[in-house]
Specification:
Largest sheet: 4 strands, mixed
Number of domains: 1
Shape: globular
Radius of gyration: 14 Å
Number of helices: 2
Mean pLDDT: 88
Low-confidence stretches: none
Strand content: 35-45%
Strand order of the largest sheet: 5-2-1-6
Length: 94
């Protein structure tokens, strides 16, 4: 898979425990933001990364990702991607 930048509207990620078992995750879950994700991060065997289901070339697949940045509005996100020459491949607004 080649480098792919995806935007998803979701809560900030804190840890693997999730909102049911972590106080900080519960606080983060209250605020939904736009997140710019790198779905082709550099390989690191020691890194524990979250996963997301994407449709790639017509097929659904699970990929790891790193969060590049958080944004309150789509305008802020578009300004950032334009300034940093980042092409967004998918926008997931669930």
């Amino acid at each position: 898979m080649t480098e792919q930048h995806v935007v998803k509207k979701m809560a900030k990620i804190h840890c693997a425990k999730g909102p049911k078992n972590c106080k900080t995750c519960r606080e983060y879950a209250k605020e939904i933001r736009y997140e710019l994700l790198d779905t082709d991060p550099q390989e690191n065997e020691l890194a524990a990364r979250p996963m997301i289901e994407l449709e790639v070339m017509g097929e659904k697949t699970w990929v790891t990702f790193d969060v590049i940045a958080y944004f309150d509005t789509m305008d802020e996100l578009q300004e950032y991607t334009a300034k940093n020459d980042i092409k967004i491949e998918q926008i997931i607004d669930e």
